[in-house]
Design a protein that fits this description.
With about 475 residues, this protein is α/β, with parallel strands linked by helices. The protein contains 22 helices and eleven strands. D-mannonic acid binds next to helix 11 and helix 15.
């Protein structure tokens, strides 16, 4: 079977939606770090729409560490399939990528970042990709940052690359690009700005001041459930398209991108493609992280304990579904400030419905990755808010304990823990006092929370149930 390409477009079966613009006509105006499935299914789908009427905003996909996606995009002329999995599945070929930069192509990236045609850079490198400490500031002890401080011209971290690109533009008198962080972190834009200025300050305080004053780092909320592209899905795409597509992605039909309004003359018209530009993204961001992602992580760690495999299966378990519903509607909702135009209870119901989509096979094990990085934003902030305001944390302690039990199970079985802190977690989770050792990890649990006796007792109590294997009373809370 041949692979998807510009030439193959003409002979795709009817019913496969083709790009609304000539893929050959697009130019590069956006540099994107981390072209994983989420980027290809979410942001690129918006940009593809923008390109229908303005060819300047093609994306250069950058992945300097892993060649897989970049090689596939190069081989396929930047084309790939987006399968929208819903009651009526639909396949659409996207032509949003005008370039791809892989391992060994750092020099080309440097040139591109300095190009005045680039007006926007975006990133989806996951929480761990930003090299932040637990308090959300740049981790100067992180090996990549240590490397970048020694060799600023050949950065290893995304922060290093952004700073290098901005430094070149400043030196050349070119206006900066706007930097759009598209990862699931509270105040994502502000955190990225602080990290970039902190690194720049080590090189040149004037550069740091320029970044602070001139570069837009809007906060954003990004949302669309995107299960990983497994071999069965890729085989399905090949079957329907009659060509192979190594970069194909799948997602639910729901998609949302809320972006803090930022100044940019003559940039891409993202709003025309359905991006919401607002002055107050914080409320949306927090609601999404705590309700959707908080519930997701809860379903993952508790569901895996119960031997379940997917989000749909977890939502079909009556006790677990009830528990997570109460968690969202009572505990999490109570931690959120009112957001204009957002009905929190309605939002929680809509999220539950999305989780119940039978056509989506979203693995709990995928959501369980990188718990040490996700827990603080998704659950611990909510717990701290409840404690500060005198609310009960007996339910909120359950997913926290479920994560600890999950790590312990994996470590005891010598199974791989996908987490940047894997070794530290495994050591802490297999000691005699698991709870004490895990809560002692300052990279995950902030001092104030971990030393609060109410939290320690609640987690220890819930953990006992997980270790004894009797979690029914927990789910009945
Ligand atoms: C999930 C998210 O993998 C995970 O941790 O919770 O990727 C989730 O599917 C997205 O944030 C939905 O927008």
């Amino acid at each position: 079977m041949t692979s998807l390409s510009r030439t193959a477009l003409a002979s795709l079966p009817a019913g496969i939606v083709r790009p609304g613009h000539d893929p050959q006509s697009i130019r590069t105006g956006i540099v994107h770090f981390g072209p994983g499935a989420f980027h290809r299914a979410h942001q690129a789908a918006y940009v593809d729409r923008v390109l229908d009427s303005d060819p300047r905003w093609g994306i250069a996909a950058v992945s300097l560490r892993s060649p897989g996606t970049v090689d596939a995009l190069k081989a396929q002329d930047g084309l790939y399939t987006l399968a929208v999995i819903d009651r009526e599945p639909a396949m659409r070929v996207l032509a949003a990528h005008s370039d791809a930069i892989g391992p060994g192509e750092g020099a080309r990236l440097r040139t591109l970042l300095a190009d005045p045609a680039i007006r926007i850079a975006t990133s989806t490198v996951t929480e761990k990709g930003y090299c932040l400490t637990n308090d959300g500031t740049l981790d100067f002890a992180h090996p990549d940052i240590v490397h970048d401080l020694k060799r600023p011209a050949e950065p290893a971290s995304v922060i290093g690359w952004i700073v290098a690109g901005l430094a070149d533009r400043r030196a050349a008198g070119t206006a900066p690009f706007a930097m759009l962080c598209c990862d699931n972190m509270t105040g994502n834009g502000g955190k990225l700005r602080a990290a970039c200025t902190a690194l720049a300050r080590q090189y040149d305080p004037a550069l740091a001041a320029w970044i602070e004053a001139e570069v837009a780092f809007p906060d954003s909320m990004v949302d669309s459930i995107t299960p990983a592209s497994d071999p069965a899905f890729l085989a399905h795409v090949a079957h329907d398209l009659h060509v192979t597509d190594k970069a194909a992605v799948q997602r639910e039909s729901f998609t949302q991108w809320v972006l803090q309004r930022f100044e940019q003359a003559d940039g891409p018209d993202l709003a025309s493609a359905g991006v919401t530009l607002t002055n107050d993204v914080r409320g949306y961001e927090q609601a999404k992280l705590r309700i959707l992602n908080g519930a997701h992580s809860s379903l993952a760690y508790i569901g895996l304990h119960l031997g379940l495999e997917t989000v749909f299966e977890a939502m079909s378990d009556p006790a677990l579904e009830h528990f997570v519903s109460r968690l969202m509607h009572y505990d999490i909702a109570a931690s959120l400030k009112p957001v204009e135009g957002l009905d929190i209870a309605g939002y929680a119901d809509a999220v539950s419905n999305r989780f119940r989509n039978p056509a989506i096979r979203h693995l709990l094990s995928q959501i369980a990755w990188d718990g040490s990085q996700k827990l603080p934003y998704r659950l611990l902030d909510t717990v701290q808010d409840a404690l500060d305001n005198g609310r009960s944390i007996e339910r909120l302690a359950v997913p926290v304990a479920a994560w600890i039990a999950f790590v312990r199970r994996k470590a005891q079985a010598h199974e791989k823990i996908t987490d940047p802190l894997a070794d530290i977690l495994a050591a802490a989770a297999t000691g005699s006092d698991v709870c004490l050792a895990m809560l002692g990890l300052r990279q995950v649990f902030p001092e104030r929370l971990a030393t609060d006796p109410r939290f320690r007792h609640a987690v220890a109590d819930a953990l006992m149930h997980f270790l004894d294997g009797h979690i029914e009373p927990l789910l009945a809370r």
